[in-house]
Amino acid sequence: MINLAVIGLGVWGQRHVRSAQSSGRFNVKMAVDPETERTAPIAKKLGLNLAESIEEALSDPSIEAVSLATPHTLHTMQIVKAAEAGKHVYSEKPFALNLQDANRAVVAAESAGIQLALGHDQRHYPVIAELKNMIGNGTFGNILHLETNLSHDSIHLLYKNYFDNADVPTQRGWRLREEEAPTGPISQFGIHRVDTFIHLLGEINWVFATGSCQAVNPSFLDTISVTVGFKSGATGYLGNSLATPLNSRLQIFGSEKWAEATGPTTFEAYRECSLINLTVSSKEAHENHSFDIIDSVAQNFSSFADAIEGKSRFIISTDQMIHNIAVVDAIRRSLDTGERVTVSAV
Length: 346
Known about the structure:
Blueprint lengths: L1 E6 L3 H12 L3 E7 L3 H11 L2 E3 L2 H5 L6 E4 L6 H10 L3 E4 L7 H14 L3 E3 L7 H11 L6 E9 L4 H9 L20 H17 L2 E9 L10 E8 L4 E7 L5 E8 L3 E5 L4 H6 L4 E5 L4 E5 L5 H13 L9 H20 L3 E2 L4
Parallel strand pairs: 1-2, 1-4, 2-3, 4-5, 5-6, 7-10
Antiparallel strand pairs: 7-11, 8-9, 8-15, 9-10, 11-12, 12-13, 13-14
């Protein structure tokens, strides 16, 4: 068992505790959160010691790894600090907000000889594994196009209340600041499907992005549309909104077959697994498949543990980690310029 400290005890930090423990690979010894008055009852319920600063976890010789469920702007700095302290790091996405910081985090981890892992757990979905195998087996023929939409309005009212009552402190308010989400819904959750695109079809060469600010506040990007070009020659489209009811789908179009993966209809089930059904179609037939809802976060922690113990590599390579941020950075630049942008080389 690997001794773990969870940094950040909000909603997703609590998920880290639950999934790390249920993986059977980690002993969660400590939680860290500066808002101790709010989180002390949570830590007590979870049976965890609560510290106020990450330094307390990093200076504890019994702690071998940390997981970061903290504001996005803190991730790179915290990864570097943890690496310097010799602690393995599991970071929530995005682990950096620009390409320079992504490289800085990876270099720090590699120089210190610690394992860096990212919370892109959707790679573990059974439906994604099935699609990856089908692509590898040539089931679709020549892959022409990949398309996805990942949208929901679960935090729509939170954003709206924030802008309507700007002087009132808001729990989870850090998520509402522009510096924490420079590409709006992509920064919040659409980045998961950027990783899915990379996982399924490889490098992305260029992006063209447009966005709108209609539902929350005239200054806040709530909906985004991104066209991409893959190195393979395939094209792709990513739609992402935080102001419409739940929609989660992924489509692959090939010269022989096409497939559509869809998600559950309730937000509670979506939070566990956002794609669970698969339809595969050709000229002759349509096949329907359903997959179990799994704890993909627990599986991601298991991959992290395997990498720490030298059993196998983490499911996401460091080059793919950096490429993901390069793609998101290109999306930001495309939004700023209104032009198609080449993705920076890793």
